[in-house]
Amino acid sequence: MKASLLLVAFVLTVSVGVFAQGGAVPHVAVAKKAAGQDHLALFKNICSPPPKPQPQQAGGPGGGQQADPPREKWYAAPVKVFDNLYYVGMTEYSSWAVTTSDGIIVIDPLYEYSVEEEVVNGLSKLGLDPKRIRYVVVSHAHRDHVGGAKLLQDRGARVVMGAADWDFLASDPGRYPKAKKDIVATDGYKLTLGDTTLTLYLTPGHTPGTISTVIPLRDGATRHTAILWGGTGFNWRSGSPRYIQPNTPASYWYANYEKSAAKMREVAKQVGADVILSNHPQYDNSTTRLSMMPKRSAGQPHPYVIGRDGVDRFLTVAEECAKAGPLW
C-alpha cells in the first residue's frame, strides 16, 4: 500500500511538472516566432527554464566588491549613431548621449570606474563638450547603469530616476558612490532640454522602478523614434532577497514585467517607434551595428532602423517570455 501511494505521488509530481512546462510552450513559441533572427539574444536570455536560484552578490548585477576590471576588458570607442544620438558605452554595458540645442542628456552612466573614460572622455573624442551634460537618466538602479551617476551629478548634472528605484538604490548595500536623490520621474514624465523632449515611462519588472524612454531621432532630413527598453533580465531568478520577499514572490516580478512590455508595445505603436535601443549592446545588436556606422554612406539604410514591426516583435518577445516564466 505504501509503495502504491509513493508511486501515485511520483506520477502526480511528474505530471504537474510536465503540465507546467506545457503551459509555457505556447508563449515560448510566440516569442520565438517574434524573435526571428534579429532578437535572438533577448529570446535566449529570458525564454528558458529558470536556473537553480543562487544568492546574488550585494548591489545586484555588478554589485560585488571585486577589484575593478582592467580597461582593455571593457573599453569601447564612442560612436555617432544618429545626428543627435551617440554611443558612449562599454563592450557589455550601453550608455547613450542625446544632444539638444541646450546641452546633453546621458542615459545610463555606467559604472563608477568607467564613466570618466567612456562618457566624459568619449564625448570629448566625438567633439562634444561633457560640461554640457545637463541631465542623467538612469533606466534602473543597478550598479552597471547607475554607478557613474554621482560623478556626473557632482559636476552639475541633474539625475532622473523612478521613485521606487531611488529607494532601491538607497537600500543597496554595494559599496560604490551613489548619487543623491534628485528628480523623481513619474509615468509619462516629459524631460525637455532645448529643442528635444524625451518621454519616460515607468516599466517595473527588471527593478521596481525601471524606466523606458521614447527618444526622437534625426538622420539628416529624416526623423525616427526610438524606444529604449529599460531593463532586460529576470533578475529575481537568482533568488536574491533584494527581489524575493513574502509580498514579492517571483510571480510578482513576472507579472510586472509582462504588463510593462505590453504597455510599451502600445506606446511604441502610438509614437510610431522604428528603432529599439537597449542598455546592453547584445540585445539591440549594437555589437554589430556600431561597427557599421563609420562605413555607412549617405543614402544607405540606417542599421538601427528596424521598422515598427521590428520594435513590436522585440517587445512581444519580452511580453511572451514573461508570460511563460511562471509556467516552467
Give the class from helix and strand content and strand pairing: alpha/beta
Unreliable residue runs: 1-20
Task: Give the proportion of residues in helices.
Answer: 25-40%
What value does the Rg take, in angstroms? Answer: 21 Å
**Strand elements, count:** 12
Strands of the largest sheet, in order across it? 1-2-3-4-5-6-7
Structural shape: globular
Determine the CATH superfamily.
Ribonuclease Z/Hydroxyacylglutathione hydrolase-like
**CATH domain fold name:** Metallo-beta-lactamase, Chain A
Q: Specify the biggest β-sheet.
A: 7 strands, mixed
SSE pattern: HHHEEEEHEHHEHEEEEEHEHH
Provide the CATH architecture: 4-Layer Sandwich
CATH secondary-structure class: Alpha Beta
Measured by DSSP, the beta-strand proportion falls in 15-25%
Distance between the termini: 32 Å
For the residues shown, what is the average pLDDT?
91
Tally of separate helices: 10
Total domain count: 1
Lay out the secondary structure:
Layout: H1 2-35, H2 40-46, H3 71-74, E1 79-82, E2 85-87, E3 96-100, E4 103-107, H4 115-125, E5 133-137, H5 143-146, H6 149-154, E6 158-162, H7 163-170, E7 183-185, E8 189-193, E9 196-202, E10 211-219, E11 222-228, H8 250-271, E12 275-277, H9 286-292, H10 307-324
Parallel strand pairs: 4-5, 5-6, 6-7, 11-12
Antiparallel strand pairs: 1-2, 2-3, 3-4, 8-9, 9-10, 10-11
Helix pairs in contact: 1-10, 8-10
